[in-house]
Amino acid sequence: MQTEPYIQPMQPLEANPILCIVGPTGSGKTHLAMSLAEYAKSLGLRLELISMDSALVYRGLDIGSAKPTKAEQAAVIHHLIDILEPNEVYSAARFAKDAKRLCEEIQSRGNIPVVVGGTMLYWRAWAHGLSALPAANPEIRARLDKEGGTLGWPAMHTKLVQVDPETAARLQPNDSQRVQRALEVFEITGKPMSVLLADSPSEDGREGSAIPAWINLVALEPSDRKRLHQNLEKRFDEMLLAGFLDEVRMLKNNLALHADLPAIRSVGYRQAWEYLNGDIDAEQMRYKALAATRQLGKRQLTWLRAIAGRKTFDPFNPAELKAALDYCKSHLKK
Fold first, then answer.
1. What is the pLDDT of residue 294?
2. Distances (CA, A) of 33 to 22, 42, 162
3. Cα 31 from Cα 136, distance rounded (Å)
4. Banded model confidence at residue 91, pLDDT cuts 50, 70, 90
5. In degrees, to the nearest 5, what angle opens at C-alpha 50 toward C-alphas 47 and 51?
6. pLDDT tier at 206 (50, 70, 90 boundaries)?
7. pLDDT for position 203
């Protein structure tokens, strides 16, 4: 059986661990990283930020992804932003390779890499490597595509529940890409994807939940869930005022794009696409987008709370936010 090669986690060039700032969407990761970069500059040091975000890799997904502004990108070097067209596909395995290469390159020129983002599957691939799942099978994939188009992806998700309930539990019924992949893996191997991942020594519940010695993980974890939701609601409304729907209209004008692409299935973009298709009204779009954003944040926090040894700070507590910055500053002085 042809498989994708096992992705080994990297080792740093220097003894100083690589700083990684994580947290749920809307927790202030970019603000903390930019404040740290400004402080480093005052010491004569130069930070380079590596984005760990599955939406920021795509050109044209700016407003709805809360992409760092042009001014922020001009002030500090950012990597893995705007590297693909939205009809292309990025993966956790590719991120692991790119992040490893970039960390080595940044360190080799005397600068400091800082990884920032909330795509936790990317975190696992980078920190612990990926198991050798089977490579895509075009025939099986085409058949599943056809079946999903006929029955609908919620029905395909129900099929996945029967053969791999653990994977199905963490996937949305309409997540065609991931539901298809999980069914494909089961057909090729005869084993659930969850079992194959658990069988990997780097991804089991014991080792996979720890932090490698070469990473210093700082997690921004808001204590007030209600306030986080209010902030996310305010941010989405500001995105709408900033022209988010016009941004999605431009994407829809690109004939190479369709609703099943990973870029278009990003939170917010999927719901705006449905609205512009006439499938839902504006109120439903806003409701569904906010619900999806809250679900994303919940999944991110679930990932984080399973990682032993992380340094946690509440970004809604001014004293803790200052402590987070001070802690990151101390990392630069080592």
1. 95
2. 10, 15, 43
3. 38
4. confident
5. 135
6. very low
7. 37
Two tokens at 255?
Answer: 């004939």
Side-chain half-sphere CA neighbours of 124 within 13 A: 23
pLDDT in tens, 303-317: 899 899 999 999 999
Closest CA to 97 of 61, 50, 30: 50
Task: Select from 42, 54, 50, 40 the least CA-distant residue to 18.
Answer: 50
Structure tokens at 116: 């920032």
The Cα–Cα gap between 143 and 140 comes to: 5
Architecture of the 227-295 domain: Orthogonal Bundle (1.10)
Position 236 confidence tier, pLDDT thresholds 50, 70, 90: very high
Query: Where does 138-198 sit in CATH, by number?
Result: 1.10.20.140
Residues constituting the chain: 334
Q: Are strands 18-22 and 47-51 parallel, antiparallel or unpaired?
A: unpaired
The class level of CATH for 18-133+201-223+303-333 reads alpha beta
Specify the amino acid at residue 236.
F
